[in-house]
Amino acid sequence: MAQDASWPTVTEEDLRKAITGTTLTGEVKAEPPFNFSEFLASDGKSRGKMIECCKPEQVVTKGMSYAGEWTLEKDSLCLTYEGEEQKICWRLQVKGDRFRMVDHQFGRVGEGQIRPGNPDNL
């Protein structure tokens, strides 16, 4: 799975600095598409909300809550959610406060913003 050439190549350490203690907020282009907001805590825990819709502002108020753990494996963000045995890994690219991720298994693409801290109190 090739990376988008318009996004810079980033090391695992650069990714760790860019996303630890931040909230990733964006949309995954899937069928149906869904919006999400997920806090990646420095202790490796993740908490988030998602909603199948095209109104990102409704994620925090109407979204389904979830939690799990996150790790970085080279250029990929890997997530294991409560109640799930299989981890989901996304090739992650970062440019400033923007991110792009591609699901290893299904090729789904997600894009959005990296926000400092946990502004949605997830």
Automatic annotation (TrEMBL):
This is DUF995 domain-containing protein.
